[in-house]
Formimidoylglutamase
Amino acid sequence: MGDEGKAAKVPTDQNAQQWSGRVDGSGAQHLRWHQLIAEQESENLSDAVALIGFRSDAGVLRNQGRIGASEGPAALRSALSPMAIHKHRTLVDLGDIVVGGDQLEPGQERLAGAVVQALSSGALPVILGGGHETAYGTGLGLIRHLADDRATRLGILNLDAHFDLRDESRRTSGTPFLDLYQEMQRHDREFHYAVLGISRPGNTAVLFEKAEELGVPYLLDEDCQPEMIWQFVHAFLERIDVLYLTIDLDVLPASVAPGVSAPAGYGVPFERILAVCRQVVASGKLVVADVVELNPRFDIDSRTARSAARLIYEISVG
Ligand SMILES: N=CN[C@@H](CCC(=O)O)C(=O)O
Ligand SMILES: [Mn+2]
Ligand SMILES: [Mn+2]
Protein backbone atom coordinates (compact mmCIF):
# COMPACT_ATOMS: atom_id res chain seq x y z
CA MET A 1 0.00 0.00 0.00
CA GLY A 2 3.11 2.21 0.08
CA ASP A 3 2.46 3.28 -3.50
CA GLU A 4 -1.00 4.64 -2.74
CA GLY A 5 -1.41 8.04 -4.35
CA LYS A 6 1.90 8.05 -6.20
CA ALA A 7 1.82 8.77 -9.92
CA ALA A 8 1.81 5.45 -11.76
CA LYS A 9 4.53 4.54 -14.21
CA VAL A 10 2.00 2.88 -16.43
CA PRO A 11 3.41 0.88 -19.33
CA THR A 12 1.50 2.47 -22.19
CA ASP A 13 2.90 2.63 -25.72
CA GLN A 14 2.02 6.15 -26.74
CA ASN A 15 1.42 9.48 -25.08
CA ALA A 16 -1.88 11.04 -26.01
CA GLN A 17 -1.67 14.25 -28.04
CA GLN A 18 -5.29 15.08 -28.74
CA TRP A 19 -5.98 17.51 -25.90
CA SER A 20 -6.68 20.94 -27.35
CA GLY A 21 -9.55 23.34 -27.82
CA ARG A 22 -11.11 26.66 -26.95
CA VAL A 23 -9.59 28.62 -24.07
CA ASP A 24 -11.79 31.25 -22.41
CA GLY A 25 -9.33 32.11 -19.65
CA SER A 26 -6.94 30.55 -17.17
CA GLY A 27 -8.98 30.70 -13.93
CA ALA A 28 -10.82 27.71 -12.45
CA GLN A 29 -14.14 29.12 -13.65
CA HIS A 30 -12.98 28.84 -17.27
CA LEU A 31 -11.64 25.31 -17.10
CA ARG A 32 -12.33 22.64 -19.69
CA TRP A 33 -11.01 19.08 -19.83
CA HIS A 34 -8.18 19.84 -22.24
CA GLN A 35 -6.80 22.54 -19.95
CA LEU A 36 -7.10 20.55 -16.73
CA ILE A 37 -5.63 17.35 -18.18
CA ALA A 38 -2.67 19.20 -19.66
CA GLU A 39 -1.97 20.86 -16.29
CA GLN A 40 -2.15 17.70 -14.22
CA GLU A 41 -0.14 15.07 -16.07
CA SER A 42 2.31 14.35 -13.28
CA GLU A 43 0.15 14.94 -10.21
CA ASN A 44 -0.72 12.57 -7.40
CA LEU A 45 -3.19 9.93 -8.62
CA SER A 46 -5.09 9.40 -5.38
CA ASP A 47 -8.80 9.74 -6.32
CA ALA A 48 -7.78 10.91 -9.80
CA VAL A 49 -9.53 9.83 -12.96
CA ALA A 50 -6.89 8.07 -15.06
CA LEU A 51 -7.69 7.68 -18.75
CA ILE A 52 -6.06 4.80 -20.63
CA GLY A 53 -6.65 4.28 -24.36
CA PHE A 54 -6.84 0.77 -25.84
CA ARG A 55 -6.25 1.06 -29.54
CA SER A 56 -7.49 -2.27 -30.83
CA ASP A 57 -9.31 -3.55 -33.88
CA ALA A 58 -8.19 -7.13 -33.33
CA GLY A 59 -11.22 -8.38 -31.38
CA VAL A 60 -13.81 -6.91 -33.74
CA LEU A 61 -11.92 -8.23 -36.75
CA ARG A 62 -11.83 -11.74 -35.26
CA ASN A 63 -15.56 -11.36 -34.50
CA GLN A 64 -16.33 -10.53 -38.16
CA GLY A 65 -17.36 -6.96 -37.32
CA ARG A 66 -16.68 -3.55 -38.90
CA ILE A 67 -13.21 -2.41 -37.90
CA GLY A 68 -12.26 1.11 -36.81
CA ALA A 69 -12.50 0.89 -33.00
CA SER A 70 -8.74 1.47 -32.73
CA GLU A 71 -9.52 5.09 -33.63
CA GLY A 72 -11.92 5.31 -30.66
CA PRO A 73 -9.54 6.70 -28.00
CA ALA A 74 -8.54 9.69 -30.17
CA ALA A 75 -12.17 10.49 -31.01
CA LEU A 76 -13.17 10.24 -27.34
CA ARG A 77 -10.38 12.62 -26.28
CA SER A 78 -11.51 15.10 -28.94
CA ALA A 79 -15.10 14.91 -27.67
CA LEU A 80 -14.04 15.26 -24.02
CA SER A 81 -11.62 18.14 -24.69
CA PRO A 82 -14.09 21.07 -24.73
CA MET A 83 -16.25 19.87 -21.84
CA ALA A 84 -16.43 22.34 -18.96
CA ILE A 85 -15.23 21.38 -15.49
CA HIS A 86 -17.70 22.17 -12.71
CA LYS A 87 -16.41 19.82 -10.03
CA HIS A 88 -12.72 19.67 -9.31
CA ARG A 89 -11.06 16.29 -9.62
CA THR A 90 -7.60 15.38 -10.83
CA LEU A 91 -7.72 14.16 -14.43
CA VAL A 92 -4.75 12.40 -16.00
CA ASP A 93 -4.21 10.78 -19.36
CA LEU A 94 -1.88 7.79 -19.12
CA GLY A 95 -1.69 7.33 -22.91
CA ASP A 96 -2.55 4.45 -25.19
CA ILE A 97 -1.92 0.73 -25.34
CA VAL A 98 -1.53 0.01 -29.05
CA VAL A 99 -2.53 -3.42 -30.34
CA GLY A 100 -0.59 -4.07 -33.52
CA GLY A 101 -2.37 -6.25 -36.09
CA ASP A 102 -3.67 -9.42 -34.49
CA GLN A 103 -1.57 -9.09 -31.31
CA LEU A 104 -4.64 -9.05 -29.06
CA GLU A 105 -3.48 -11.23 -26.16
CA PRO A 106 -0.25 -9.29 -25.46
CA GLY A 107 -2.24 -6.06 -25.76
CA GLN A 108 -4.82 -7.25 -23.21
CA GLU A 109 -1.96 -8.27 -20.92
CA ARG A 110 -0.45 -4.78 -21.17
CA LEU A 111 -3.83 -3.20 -20.50
CA ALA A 112 -4.29 -5.37 -17.41
CA GLY A 113 -0.87 -4.18 -16.17
CA ALA A 114 -1.83 -0.55 -16.71
CA VAL A 115 -5.14 -1.04 -14.87
CA VAL A 116 -3.37 -2.72 -11.92
CA GLN A 117 -0.93 0.18 -11.64
CA ALA A 118 -3.63 2.82 -11.89
CA LEU A 119 -5.75 1.05 -9.25
CA SER A 120 -2.75 0.64 -6.95
CA SER A 121 -2.13 4.37 -7.23
CA GLY A 122 -5.63 5.05 -5.94
CA ALA A 123 -7.07 6.26 -9.26
CA LEU A 124 -10.34 5.47 -10.97
CA PRO A 125 -9.15 4.03 -14.30
CA VAL A 126 -11.43 4.84 -17.23
CA ILE A 127 -10.44 2.91 -20.32
CA LEU A 128 -11.21 4.27 -23.76
CA GLY A 129 -11.78 1.33 -26.16
CA GLY A 130 -11.21 -0.38 -28.50
CA GLY A 131 -13.70 -3.10 -29.28
CA HIS A 132 -15.28 -4.99 -26.40
CA GLU A 133 -12.17 -7.20 -26.21
CA THR A 134 -10.96 -4.23 -24.13
CA ALA A 135 -13.06 -5.66 -21.28
CA TYR A 136 -10.86 -8.72 -20.82
CA GLY A 137 -7.85 -6.48 -20.14
CA THR A 138 -9.83 -4.18 -17.84
CA GLY A 139 -11.35 -7.08 -15.90
CA LEU A 140 -8.08 -8.99 -15.67
CA GLY A 141 -6.45 -5.91 -14.16
CA LEU A 142 -9.16 -5.67 -11.52
CA ILE A 143 -8.98 -9.40 -10.71
CA ARG A 144 -5.22 -9.14 -10.28
CA HIS A 145 -5.54 -6.01 -8.17
CA LEU A 146 -7.84 -7.93 -5.81
CA ALA A 147 -5.90 -11.21 -6.01
CA ASP A 148 -5.10 -11.24 -2.27
CA ASP A 149 -8.59 -10.16 -1.31
CA ARG A 150 -10.99 -13.01 -2.06
CA ALA A 151 -13.63 -11.69 0.33
CA THR A 152 -14.39 -8.66 -1.82
CA ARG A 153 -17.23 -9.47 -4.21
CA LEU A 154 -16.39 -8.16 -7.64
CA GLY A 155 -19.25 -7.32 -10.01
CA ILE A 156 -19.35 -6.50 -13.70
CA LEU A 157 -22.27 -4.47 -15.01
CA ASN A 158 -22.39 -4.44 -18.81
CA LEU A 159 -24.57 -1.91 -20.65
CA ASP A 160 -24.81 -3.67 -23.99
CA ALA A 161 -27.19 -5.05 -26.62
CA HIS A 162 -25.11 -8.26 -26.49
CA PHE A 163 -24.09 -10.82 -23.89
CA ASP A 164 -20.53 -11.17 -25.23
CA LEU A 165 -20.40 -14.68 -23.78
CA ARG A 166 -19.39 -16.40 -27.01
CA ASP A 167 -17.51 -19.68 -26.69
CA GLU A 168 -14.69 -19.42 -29.24
CA SER A 169 -11.26 -20.96 -29.70
CA ARG A 170 -9.60 -17.55 -29.15
CA ARG A 171 -10.56 -14.21 -27.64
CA THR A 172 -12.66 -11.78 -29.70
CA SER A 173 -14.88 -8.76 -29.04
CA GLY A 174 -17.71 -11.27 -28.56
CA THR A 175 -16.05 -13.40 -25.85
CA PRO A 176 -14.77 -11.08 -23.05
CA PHE A 177 -17.20 -12.06 -20.31
CA LEU A 178 -16.82 -15.79 -20.86
CA ASP A 179 -13.07 -15.14 -20.83
CA LEU A 180 -13.44 -13.28 -17.51
CA TYR A 181 -15.72 -16.01 -16.13
CA GLN A 182 -12.95 -18.53 -16.84
CA GLU A 183 -10.36 -16.21 -15.30
CA MET A 184 -12.47 -15.89 -12.16
CA GLN A 185 -12.81 -19.67 -11.98
CA ARG A 186 -9.02 -19.90 -12.05
CA HIS A 187 -8.85 -17.34 -9.21
CA ASP A 188 -11.57 -19.15 -7.26
CA ARG A 189 -13.84 -16.08 -7.40
CA GLU A 190 -17.59 -15.92 -7.83
CA PHE A 191 -18.74 -14.52 -11.16
CA HIS A 192 -21.15 -11.61 -10.71
CA TYR A 193 -22.06 -10.37 -14.17
CA ALA A 194 -25.24 -8.58 -15.28
CA VAL A 195 -26.23 -7.08 -18.63
CA LEU A 196 -28.65 -4.24 -19.26
CA GLY A 197 -30.05 -3.54 -22.74
CA ILE A 198 -30.01 -7.00 -24.29
CA SER A 199 -31.52 -7.21 -27.77
CA ARG A 200 -33.49 -10.42 -28.27
CA PRO A 201 -32.79 -10.57 -32.02
CA GLY A 202 -29.17 -9.57 -31.45
CA ASN A 203 -28.30 -12.72 -29.48
CA THR A 204 -28.84 -16.32 -30.50
CA ALA A 205 -30.61 -18.90 -28.31
CA VAL A 206 -27.18 -20.36 -27.50
CA LEU A 207 -26.16 -17.07 -25.88
CA PHE A 208 -29.38 -16.82 -23.85
CA GLU A 209 -28.74 -20.40 -22.68
CA LYS A 210 -25.16 -19.55 -21.74
CA ALA A 211 -26.40 -16.56 -19.70
CA GLU A 212 -28.91 -18.85 -17.98
CA GLU A 213 -26.24 -21.48 -17.30
CA LEU A 214 -23.92 -18.90 -15.70
CA GLY A 215 -26.74 -17.25 -13.71
CA VAL A 216 -26.36 -13.92 -15.50
CA PRO A 217 -29.24 -11.51 -14.79
CA TYR A 218 -30.20 -9.40 -17.79
CA LEU A 219 -32.75 -6.77 -18.77
CA LEU A 220 -34.02 -6.68 -22.34
CA ASP A 221 -33.85 -3.36 -24.20
CA GLU A 222 -37.66 -3.36 -24.48
CA ASP A 223 -37.98 -3.74 -20.69
CA CYS A 224 -35.69 -0.81 -19.90
CA GLN A 225 -38.24 1.45 -18.24
CA PRO A 226 -36.81 3.80 -15.57
CA GLU A 227 -38.17 1.94 -12.53
CA MET A 228 -37.21 -1.49 -13.94
CA ILE A 229 -33.68 -0.22 -14.61
CA TRP A 230 -33.29 1.25 -11.15
CA GLN A 231 -34.45 -1.97 -9.49
CA PHE A 232 -32.25 -4.14 -11.70
CA VAL A 233 -29.12 -2.08 -10.99
CA HIS A 234 -29.98 -1.74 -7.29
CA ALA A 235 -30.42 -5.52 -6.89
CA PHE A 236 -27.09 -6.17 -8.62
CA LEU A 237 -25.23 -3.58 -6.54
CA GLU A 238 -26.60 -5.20 -3.36
CA ARG A 239 -24.86 -8.47 -4.32
CA ILE A 240 -21.38 -7.01 -4.79
CA ASP A 241 -18.73 -4.84 -3.11
CA VAL A 242 -16.82 -3.31 -6.00
CA LEU A 243 -18.08 -2.58 -9.48
CA TYR A 244 -16.55 -2.65 -12.93
CA LEU A 245 -18.90 -0.75 -15.27
CA THR A 246 -18.48 -1.54 -18.96
CA ILE A 247 -20.39 0.51 -21.54
CA ASP A 248 -20.72 -0.89 -25.05
CA LEU A 249 -22.04 2.06 -27.04
CA ASP A 250 -24.25 -0.24 -29.13
CA VAL A 251 -26.60 -0.29 -26.14
CA LEU A 252 -27.76 3.14 -27.35
CA PRO A 253 -30.21 3.56 -30.24
CA ALA A 254 -28.55 3.76 -33.68
CA SER A 255 -29.80 7.35 -34.00
CA VAL A 256 -27.70 8.31 -30.97
CA ALA A 257 -24.82 5.91 -31.59
CA PRO A 258 -24.38 5.10 -35.28
CA GLY A 259 -20.60 4.88 -34.92
CA VAL A 260 -20.29 1.32 -33.64
CA SER A 261 -19.64 -2.06 -35.22
CA ALA A 262 -23.20 -3.33 -34.69
CA PRO A 263 -25.72 -0.44 -34.33
CA ALA A 264 -28.90 -1.11 -32.35
CA GLY A 265 -32.23 -0.99 -34.17
CA TYR A 266 -33.99 -0.48 -30.83
CA GLY A 267 -31.55 0.50 -28.11
CA VAL A 268 -31.90 2.03 -24.66
CA PRO A 269 -32.53 5.81 -24.60
CA PHE A 270 -29.50 7.93 -23.72
CA GLU A 271 -31.03 9.47 -20.61
CA ARG A 272 -31.65 6.00 -19.11
CA ILE A 273 -28.04 4.97 -19.65
CA LEU A 274 -26.97 8.27 -18.11
CA ALA A 275 -29.22 7.52 -15.10
CA VAL A 276 -27.48 4.15 -14.66
CA CYS A 277 -24.11 5.92 -14.64
CA ARG A 278 -25.38 8.27 -11.92
CA GLN A 279 -26.80 5.38 -9.91
CA VAL A 280 -23.55 3.41 -9.91
CA VAL A 281 -21.47 6.48 -9.04
CA ALA A 282 -23.84 7.28 -6.17
CA SER A 283 -23.41 3.74 -4.82
CA GLY A 284 -19.72 4.44 -4.11
CA LYS A 285 -18.83 0.98 -5.44
CA LEU A 286 -17.47 1.95 -8.86
CA VAL A 287 -13.72 1.22 -9.10
CA VAL A 288 -13.09 0.93 -12.85
CA ALA A 289 -14.98 1.64 -16.08
CA ASP A 290 -14.52 1.33 -19.80
CA VAL A 291 -16.36 2.72 -22.80
CA VAL A 292 -16.02 0.55 -25.87
CA GLU A 293 -16.95 -0.11 -29.49
CA LEU A 294 -16.80 3.51 -30.70
CA ASN A 295 -15.99 3.34 -34.41
CA PRO A 296 -15.41 6.89 -35.68
CA ARG A 297 -15.46 5.68 -39.31
CA PHE A 298 -19.21 5.15 -39.05
CA ASP A 299 -20.01 8.08 -36.78
CA ILE A 300 -22.17 11.00 -37.95
CA ASP A 301 -20.95 14.45 -36.91
CA SER A 302 -19.28 12.80 -33.88
CA ARG A 303 -22.64 12.09 -32.28
CA THR A 304 -21.56 8.70 -30.89
CA ALA A 305 -18.30 10.17 -29.57
CA ARG A 306 -20.15 13.11 -27.97
CA SER A 307 -22.69 10.80 -26.31
CA ALA A 308 -19.88 8.58 -25.04
CA ALA A 309 -17.97 11.62 -23.76
CA ARG A 310 -21.04 12.74 -21.80
CA LEU A 311 -21.19 9.32 -20.13
CA ILE A 312 -17.49 9.49 -19.27
CA TYR A 313 -18.03 13.01 -17.93
CA GLU A 314 -20.82 11.72 -15.69
CA ILE A 315 -18.70 8.87 -14.35
CA SER A 316 -15.71 11.13 -13.76
CA VAL A 317 -16.76 14.62 -12.74
CA GLY A 318 -20.57 14.61 -12.89
N1 LIG B 1 -18.99 -7.38 -29.29
C1 LIG B 1 -19.89 -8.14 -29.61
N2 LIG B 1 -20.55 -8.05 -30.70
C2 LIG B 1 -21.69 -8.77 -31.10
C3 LIG B 1 -21.81 -8.53 -32.56
C4 LIG B 1 -23.10 -8.92 -33.09
C5 LIG B 1 -23.25 -8.64 -34.58
O1 LIG B 1 -22.24 -8.46 -35.27
O2 LIG B 1 -24.39 -8.58 -35.01
C6 LIG B 1 -21.63 -10.24 -30.77
O3 LIG B 1 -20.57 -10.87 -30.93
O4 LIG B 1 -22.66 -10.80 -30.39
MN1 LIG C 1 -20.27 -5.77 -26.29
MN1 LIG D 1 -22.69 -4.88 -28.15
Notes: The mean pLDDT is 94. The two ends are 28 Å apart (CA to CA).
